[in-house]
Design a protein that fits this description.
Layout lengths: L9 E6 L20 H14 L3 E6 L39 E5 L16 H7 L4 E7 L1 H14 L3 E10 L7 H11 L3 E3 L1 H5 L3
Helix pairs in contact: 3-4
Length: about 200
Amino acid sequence: MRIRSPGRGDALLVVDVQEDFLPGGALAVAEGDAAIPPLNEAIRAFSKAGLPIFVTRDWHPPDHCSFVQQGGLWPSHCVAGTRGAAFPRALRLPASPLMISKATDPAAEAYSAFAGTDLAELLSDRRVRRVFVGGLATDYCVLRTVLDARAVGLDAVVLDDAVRAVDVEPGDGERAIARMRAAGAVFVHTRTALAEE
């Protein structure tokens, strides 16, 4: 599918590509590291074009409600300031990305990059009308971020080779993709998305 290549009014959202979500991490996403090379392509292209790049991260307190120890679903992960919350060296972030830290309230879950953050305002301030999204994981933080982007009136392009699913239940990733498509998101390969008209 051909879409307009990134330009004025566009931003890149790199969602939660953190050590704990990569192979060997506390909450590893299968093949999560395979999302990094296409994300690096997108980061290079957006940087070259002078377009905004937002990088989101789980930045949990040690007693976050999502952790099993607190009655939540997940093992302790991405605790603020720990190695597990860090970005991998392989992810070639720009020198000064626009950082969005989420899930910082111990009592509130926050899969979406819009939940409890000022992301919507920051995008509005920059007159962003369309977001390109990649990262981890398809069926949780990418899903909720894309749905919220659509809910606030943004067009959403998901870089389909730059996302990977947790798949707690088989097919969760496919169901998440179906939900995003139903909400109006477009799925496209990174190189196709970045190709010049």
